[in-house]
Amino acid sequence: MSLRHLNVLAEDDDDPMLSAVNLVDVFLVLVVALLTAVAVQSQTSAHESVTIIRNPGQPDMEVVVREQGKEVRFKGAGSAAQGQGVRAGVAYKLKDGNIVYIPETGAAPATALAGGAGGVATAAPAKP
Predict the structure, then answer these.
(1) 52: three-class secondary structure by DSSP
(2) Residues of the chain below pLDDT 70
(3) Which of 6, 20, 76, 119 could bond to 61 as cystine, CB 3.0-4.6 Å?
(4) What is the per-residue burial (b if ≥16 Cβ within 10 Å, else e) of 91-119?
């Protein structure tokens, strides 16, 4: 009996196809995981807002806005914008990069804009 038991332990079932089948299974699991990740990423990116400016500063400049799966295109006419309006104030760029808006007399007060330095400047009254 002991010889039979040792004979069973000595058998080697080294079939090369078994290892190949295991590798195929591993790769199938990886492919399914990657496809799932791509599908989830494409669903989340469809709800993001994106603004693209093509040919900036050129006469054929185009602005493309994508919001919630919809795309809107704005095309330039090749010339400067024209229209009617009134002067609302003056903007000054400071040395630190901040931009300060000073409203004209009689204009509604506006908040200051943050410039390149990241700080916020306060609006000051206009000097004559």
Answers:
(1) strand
(2) 1-14, 43-47, 78-82, 106-128
(3) 76
(4) eeeeeeebbbbbeeeeeeeeebeebeeee
